[in-house]
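Encode chain A's predicted structure.
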Amino acid sequence: MSIYKIWSSYKISRFCLNVCRSLRYRSLARELAEYNIVVNAIAPGLIRTPFHNPEITPPQAFEKMASEILLKRAGAPEDIVGAAMFLASDYADYITGATIDVNGGLYMS
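Encoded structure for chain A:
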């Protein structure tokens, strides 16, 4: 399978998932706002985890996808932590219905 077919499929599936999630968490944000409960989302990009199956995405294809990201690398689980800690902190108590993209510029490239 071509790297472009894998990458295109990945981008399309991520987009569809993000739209569905966006509708769900924004609806929750509206419903829970009256209780002063905020609802936000984190949209990770290509993150290197132990769950990547080399039979589905060969290492060279994964590295090719990573090289096409603006920061020229795949993210690590630790890259998501900062966004999660921010959203859980008092600094984000006036943010609701928002998505923080943690993707190294994936959708800008």
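The chain has a mean pLDDT of 82.
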